[in-house]
């Protein structure tokens, strides 16, 4: 019943008709499952090392080191083919979610959702000094958040469509490495 309601989106009145249960039962059971999921999220969606003291082994690969020294994960806003269209997800280099905000209605700019998360969720894993998240061009370059160079090829698909030509120049090379590292992390979203 819970999945049917959030997957639709379906109202409680629609659930009442579909499952032939009272509104009180629908509301009570929905709230029970939601509270259980929130408790589960507190245990599972968080940084393994909240102080971010150690560089992850993936960052130490030759193609990323030392250019992305200090990277602690990636942030992306994603539109998923479910009724909760806007999701802000933070992933670490072990491809685990460390923070998730879901449910912004309609189209919301990535920066707006991030700023709201920073202002209203004390559990947001803010990067400590000298550390940062990799973000796409929908986010501004600012302390703790490293975006790609604007005006230069960025997405891996764009590089592939150019007849497999390698990146040219320092901006394209940086963007190619940035995109490769983010995609390695955020491939977890595609299986979401």
Automatic annotation (TrEMBL):
UniProt KW keywords: Hydrolase, Metal-binding, Nuclease, Nucleus
Subcellular location: Nucleus
Major subcellular site: nucleus
Pfam families (alphabetical): DDE_Tnp_4
Cofactors, names only: a divalent metal cation
One Gene Ontology term, aspect cellular component: nucleus
InterPro entries, A to Z: HARBI1-like, HARBI1_dom
GO molecular function annotations of the record: hydrolase activity; metal ion binding; nuclease activity
Residues annotated as domain DDE Tnp4: 86-184
Superkingdom as given in the UniProt entry: Eukaryota
Similarity field: Belongs to the HARBI1 family.
Protein name: DDE Tnp4 domain-containing protein
Species, as recorded: Aegilops tauschii subsp. strangulata (Goatgrass)
């Amino acid at each position: 019943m819970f999945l049917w309601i959030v997957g639709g989106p379906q109202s409680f009145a629609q659930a009442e008709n579909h499952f032939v249960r009272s509104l009180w039962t629908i509301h009570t059971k929905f709230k029970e499952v939601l509270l259980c999921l929130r408790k589960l999220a507190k245990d599972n969606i968080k940084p393994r090392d909240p102080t971010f003291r150690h560089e992850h082994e993936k960052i130490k690969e030759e193609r990323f080191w030392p250019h992305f020294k200090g990277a602690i994960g990636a942030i992306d806003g994603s539109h998923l083919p479910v009724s909760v269209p806007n999701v802000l997800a933070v992933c670490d280099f072990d491809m685990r979610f460390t923070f998730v905000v879901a449910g912004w209605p309609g189209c919301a700019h990535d920066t707006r959702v991030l700023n709201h998360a920073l202002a209203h969720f004390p559990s947001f894993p803010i990067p400590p000094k000298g550390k940062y998240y990799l973000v796409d061009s929908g986010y501004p370059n600012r302390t703790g958040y490293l975006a790609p160079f604007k005006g230069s090829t960025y997405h891996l698909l764009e590089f592939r469509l150019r007849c497999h030509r390698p990146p040219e120049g320092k901006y394209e090379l940086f963007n190619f490495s940035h995109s490769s590292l983010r995609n390695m992390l955020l491939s977890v979203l595609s299986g979401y």
